Amino acid sequence: MEESATISKKAAKKAEAKAKKEALKEQRAAERLAASVGAVKLDHDDPAKDRYGRATPTSPPVFSSDAQEVNLRSLGEEHDGKTVILRAWLQNSRAQSAKMAFVELREEGSWTIQGIVVATAETSPEAPHVVSRPMVKWVGGITPESFVVVEAKVQRPVEPVKSCRVSMFELLVTRCFTLAPAPALLGMTLATANRPIVDFNDEETNAPGEGEKDADDGGVPAATMLTHLDNIAMHKRAPVQQAIADIRVEMKHLFRSYLRDRGFKEFEPPCLIGAASEGGSNVFRLPYFTKEAFLAQSPQFYKQIEIAGGRKRVFSIGPVFRAENSNTPRHMTEFTGLDLEMEIRNDYNEVLLMLEGVLLHMFRQIQERCAAEIEVVRSVYPSEEILLPEPGKEVRLSFAEAQQLLREEGPAEFRNVRDDEDMSTPQEKALGAVVREKFNTDFYVIDKFPDTARPFYAKVDPASKPSSEGVRATNAFDFFLRGQEILSGGQRINDPDELEERIRAKGIDPASPGIEGYVDIFRQVGVPPHGGGGIGLDRIVAWFLGLPSVHLAAYYPRTPKRLSP
Ligand code: ATP
């Protein structure tokens, strides 16, 4: 134990020293660069002096009258030979010689194009040429991640530019202005920001910043999540994060449009609530004038109030808060819930099928709509193609069937799992592997959870027989993706007496704050049979993409130890 502590201390010291040396080297290089850029003073006799420089309100950029603004996404044949204006981040510059420099311009996400700046022949003030040597030097010295605007002629490169997303065209830069220069030294380079994160630990360790260099990646060091979040703008600029964010936006859009097409109405539940109604321990408390308030752990009760209030089908998309000290790749203290609730006509399977339908629609559509973004993510975080069930071949197991499968076909350590006890995370993952092997799918449903594993509002299956311990099955289910839970749902109790009985059976006082008012709603009016489910948006994005942590799928991950940025 002591020996391993000494070794890890030594390793940490070594890593720290290495990181310091690396940082020093980078700083020196940056200083040299800054000095060289500083040295490139704008030459007032330079006939090209109006074609480059730092743009300011008093000295705005000037362009040719025939130049048109373009976006890289829509650059095509029609632009070949034309003069265009592009606003972009300069992500790389390389002076080839005194007469020629290459730049890489990134407009958004992974949309990049090569630019070349070439000094033209001899000039005189009477016959100013397009690009001068001082201009080439100045452009070649712009610091990476500066925001620039260029005027350029679109042309075909000698060979396709493999390093840029726009590979069939390049820009012959004839004007270049910095709108917002970046500092000489970045806290994290774009190349590092676009490498897989090496450590998701939220605590400062001895070894700061960037991790080991990887020979396979041109020696670009990878960084920890802490470094990423401390350099949030660079983290977000990385094409991989932009692609994840675009996929997330599309997932949300697909959820909303599918449900709207089926008569669901969107509503906004409150985040601030007066009682920790769904359970005491994992709720955030905060001062509220002279009282105490809580942050909602889910929109559950409010979805049901909407149904009680005469809405037949509702959904909400919004933040959910959990005061759980769970430092895992699956948990955050704030996440985005995709929730729905609907009236049941005949059977709770209507709810199960609706939830299955919306998720499969989202996963299938996203593969088509975001194929390019998925590819960008896979280039950084490789993952196996997700296996979805063929229509009509969806896998729905009862909890008892799932446990039997695990006992019979799972790892030896799960030979004795019981039908009346909830599954642990390792059990869920092992079952995921068995289901993939047996049914060729990464997406499946486990239904009829035991009442011990569900909250008091879950409807007990009237047909279920109690186990020897008195445990009964419920009309409640979880959905899984790549062996991890992504959704909880089921039928809710709509009869006030039955509800009160289940509340007591769970050892909760029906007169306790939040609970009494909830049960009252079912006494005030007749509430139709109903059910629904809650999906974690961060989890479906992360597990669909095979990411190592939900923290990568969130815009600003909140964990027990991190509240910023
Ligand atoms: P778990 O057992 O994994 O902690 P849970 O049973 O508490 O999850 P529910 O309360 O049923 O989860 O929430 C519904 C869905 O919300 C989950 O299936 C999951 O997708 C998501 N979710 C729950 N807790 C978190 C969390 N802390 N961080 C991110 N997503 C979460």
Query: What structural class should be given to the helix and strand makeup?
Result: alpha+beta
Radius of gyration: 29 Å
Task: Estimate the helix proportion, in percent.
Answer: 25-40%
Spatial gap, N to C terminus: 37 Å
Report mean pLDDT, rounded to a whole number: 90
Count of alpha and pi helical runs? 14
| Content of β-strand | 15-25%
**Number of strand elements:** 20
Strand order of the largest sheet: 10-14-15-20-19-18-17-16
**Distinct small molecules:** adenosine-5'-triphosphate
Biggest sheet character: 8 strands, mixed
Low-confidence stretches: 1-7, 35-40, 206-215
Question: Looking at the structure, what is the overall shape?
Answer: elongated
EC number: 6.1.1.12
Subcellular location: Cytoplasm
InterPro entries: Aa-tRNA-synt_II (IPR004364), aa-tRNA-synth_II (IPR006195), aa-tRNA-synth_II/BPL/LPL (IPR045864), Asp-tRNA_synthase_2 (IPR004523), Asp/Asn-tRNA-synth_IIb (IPR002312), NA-bd_OB-fold (IPR012340)
Catalytic activity: tRNA(Asp) + L-aspartate + ATP = L-aspartyl-tRNA(Asp) + AMP + diphosphate
